[in-house]
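U., I forgot to send this yesterday:
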Amino acid sequence: MDYGTISLDQAEIRLREFVYGVYGWMAGGLALTALIGMWIANSPQALIFLAQNPWLIWVLFIGQLVMVISIGVPSVSGTTSTILYILYSALTGVTLSGIFLVYTKASIALAFFSTAGMFGAMAIYGYTTKKDLTRMGQILFMMLIGIVIASLINLFFHSSTFEFIISILGVIVFSGLTAYDNQKIKQIGQQTYSLDENAIQKFTVVGALALYLDFLNLFLLLLQLLGSRRD
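Result:
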């Protein structure tokens, strides 16, 4: 459909529908992760099974990585991407269930609401700013790679100071990526008039995954900085 055949009001409605869809899937994924994580943490049988099979966590991590990569592959359909996203969100609940055993409920709540506030502020900025955040996104992505490498190195040194610095930088990076991803989602939403239903579904899930990862990583980093461990 040519842009000239739809009114500005129609274009705005389509943009809103796309953005609502992205946030709906993001929220659904986070809710699924939290529910499964809490269920695992409160199931002695599940905890015993995971404790007796520690290799399973590594298998799940690898599977999650494959799913994340596959969702973004252009040849993967919107329906398949949706299924992979749901499965990924569920498996993340399993791999992160330990936080409900390690940290107090008050700490988890504090980290969650702090994350929601920071995420919301940066999302609004990214969506409303007239500044092109493409260059910033590229820099933040390079910083993210550096943080991953530094985290792997710190696995051997176990430096609490280094870990604290990495966490602070991580909060900065994912806050910035939240703004960048929201601007990108808005730009895609403005082009949905020219996309078929499969493409719209695909971009909706890809956008939801990006925001899901921004929120989840920001939450985990803030939990690491602000959280109090159980006795």
